[in-house]
From TrEMBL:
GO terms for molecular function: hydrolase activity. GO terms for biological process: chemotaxis. It comes from the Bacteria. InterPro entries: CheC-like_sf, CheZ_family_phosphatases. Keywords: Chemotaxis, Hydrolase. Signal peptide: none annotated. This is Chemotaxis protein. The keyword Lipid biosynthesis does not apply.
């Protein structure tokens, strides 16, 4: 293994350790929010060329339901919580203690339930990272979106692309008991945050 490859592996391991801690904190918050029903774990941290990202994370051109939080400024980033239609509806119904809706349009209460889920997870994630790098973040209010995942992800990655050839992205897996749920967190830190994360340990 050459020096460049070794440095890349070491750098990703540092980032993986930091983001694992953030994921653990988010998992605790999610467990409380859902009454212990759902937990999450960090799946992978990757540095990839933009053109490979959508292929590696298998977003395809499927319409997804998403909750997006952003942090502006140099030390910023984007937090994207994604669901397919079935899983998003199931979560909303569970939180509202109602039957799963079969209406085409999402109700305000359903959207509110998912936005609050994204807010709880995103704030737990950002708060842990802020403590690790000695900063303070004020995330945007959560936005409820129904769009193609590839489009939202590419928009979140543009800040990184402007400053480097590769982008950093991590993916998180959700579990309900032993069942893997088809929803994920995609966390995309801006370039300056990436640098602070790398030097924080």
């Amino acid at each position: 293994m050459d020096t460049a490859t070794t440095n890349s592996v070491d750098r990703l391991q540092v980032l993986h350790n930091i983001l694992s801690e953030a994921t653990e904190e988010a998992s605790s918050a999610m467990s409380i929010w859902t009454g212990g029903a759902i937990t999450l774990s960090l799946d992978c941290v990757r540095e990839l060329p933009l053109e490979q990202v959508t292929q590696e994370f298998d977003l395809g051109m499927e319409l997804l339901t998403m909750v997006v939080l952003t942090i502006g400024g140099d030390v910023g980033g984007t937090f994207i919580l994604t669901f397919d239609e079935e899983n998003g509806r199931r979560l909303a119904a569970s939180l509202m203690k109602q039957e799963v809706s079969t209406e085409i349009e999402w109700s305000e209460l359903e959207e509110s339930a998912l936005k609050e889920t994204g807010n709880i997870l995103g704030c737990a994630y950002f708060n842990r990272i802020a403590r690790l790098i000695g900063g303070e973040f004020v995330p945007s209010p959560p936005a409820f979106l129904q769009d193609y995942g590839v489009c939202v992800l590419q928009q979140a990655l543009m800040e990184q692309v402007q400053e480097g050839s590769d982008v950093l992205i991590c993916q998180t897996t959700f579990m309900q008991g032993r069942e893997k749920l088809n929803w994920n967190i995609l966390f995309v830190p801006h370039t300056h945050m990436r640098g602070l994360l790398r030097t924080s340990l």
